[in-house]
Amino acid sequence: MLVTFKCRACPDVMMLENLAQYLVGIVGKRLGERGVIIHDELDVAIGKLEAAINVDKQERAEHEGHFHEGEDGHEHHEIPPGLAQRAYPFLDMLRAAKKENADIVWGL
Description:
Number of domains: 1
Helix content: 40-55%
Order of helices and strands: EEHEHHE
């Protein structure tokens, strides 16, 4: 199922429900049928999401040395997108909403 986040400060952001639930959880909300991140909550939400992205980047960098691309006896495998790539549209929306003093809503 898709979840659409809306904000008057920027275009809508749509994502799969499991990713939406994960990202909304990071910023301290629950993904219910309807929800809102009010403009007063945006500083904290942005900080939490940026911190999670930084932790993910660090963990990925530490594990990067464990990938054996091109070595004999190791199959090729793709590295899945990190949190930064998956969260960018939502983080961009949070920042735009903060700049415009707007709320972000979903489930309308």
